[in-house]
Amino acid sequence: MPTVLIWNGYRFYFFSNEGNEPPHIHVDRGDNSVKLWLEPVSVARAFGFPQREVRVIAEKVTEERERFLQAWNEYFRNHR
Question: How many domains does the chain have?
């Protein structure tokens, strides 16, 4: 599970076996989790986070989108 960013207690990562899915990022904090697609940024699913917190996370993902896409593409280019 490559971690791409830790920010304000949130861990942004992807699973190494998900290269067959469109680019996305998982975000966890405590027992809460959200999965966001990167093209375009949108929520795939969320568990435990209140909606306003999901919005904050989505805003951060939008800010970091290019970084996350680069990490995704580099990782899966080298691990296929």
Answer: 1
Q: Whose structure tokens read 């966001």?
A: 36
Whether 16 and 5 have beta carbons less than 8 Å apart is answered as no
**3-state helix/strand/coil string of 5-68:** EEECCEEEECCCCCCCCCCEEEEEECCEEEEEEECCEEEEEEECCCHHHHHHHHHHHHHHHHHH
Query: Domain residues for 46?
Result: 3-78
**SS3 category, 2:** coil
Cis amide prior to 2 (ω within 30 degrees) = no
Residues 33, 34, 38: CA angle, nearest 5 degrees: 150
Low-confidence ranges of the chain (pLDDT < 70): 80
The overall pTM is greater than 0.85: yes
